[in-house]
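dumping this here before i forget
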Amino acid sequence: MNQFALTEEQGALVARVRRIAEEELGALSESGAPGRVNRPLIKALGTRGLLETLFGGADGGRKAAAMDLCLLRETLAAVNTEAETALALQGLGSYPFLLFGSDEVVARWRPRVASGDAVAAFALSEAGAGSDAGALELRAEPDGDGWTLHGEKCWISNGPEADVYSVFARTTEGARARGVTAFVVPGDSAGLSGEALDMISPHPIGRVVFDGVRVGPGDVLGEVDRGFGVAMRTLDLFRPSVGAFALGMAQAALDEAVAHTTTRTAFGGVLADQQAVSHTLADMALRLEASRLLVYSAASAYDAGAAPEEITRRSAMAKLDATETAQFVVDAAVQLVGARALQRGHILEHLYRDVRAPRIYEGASEVQRTIIGRSLTRPAR
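structure:
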């Protein structure tokens, strides 16, 4: 991994995470059932202290460091994508209540999520509200001093098995993004159910049904009708780290392509002697390095407390460029390695499937371009 701009402590974090991923997490990843939450793996991430690092360390409180999150995800992804995704989903599902929940909510759930004893989920998407998050239809109907939730969420990672959900529901009709409220909802709440969806993703994704699930005023994250901001603040933090996840996969693909082309003999020499091959490797490395700098820049801006509009723009750029680059790098690696790269069990076959989804979730590439474009044109109007 490139060490540009990393402190000594960050370098040590990368080395520790890589050692744990290589030596301790592989067997746990292989033991999980397809489409189900791998609780032993999540617990191991907690026991090894990686989930605690996700929350700023044992004394982190409500702290969430974007650069540490990126380093965790990039390092794990280069070795073990299932462990990376399990860790990332713990953060995505719990950062809304970490950042916006009451002290009681944080005290109840943060220790359990950080230890790996509770599985978290981020419940924003719906069948009719993916990229258009302002079109949410899950209803929060007034009920005494609280609300009851009615409707469904779809394509929810860790659903419907999660122990705690950050849920976004409509509290004011016709107000689009201005009428959404965020709630923390325990997974064992009465009226909460769902089903797993059969996806090609390496982690569980499901449909979650809310049939009169009751939430109270203490379950509100942030303010009533301002939950859209809770979602966007969480995504601003997480989008650079989605790019970091993509970087880890791209690095693994590049490493595999280099290993293959420098040992495979063809046309009287090794493949890497062919100019077409060496130039492809050069393009892969160039785009990967440029994307890494964008990701680190976005994470640094978040940690430095940059203006919200700058954080949003940089996060969108980092996520867009890194995920598109990873798709290119993995596809190019498959082309260089050839048919064996698509054989079940080959690292590139695995990466070829995993690399596609990051261009869709947490804001599709087209959404990121819209965010970037608006950041340029709005100030000029």
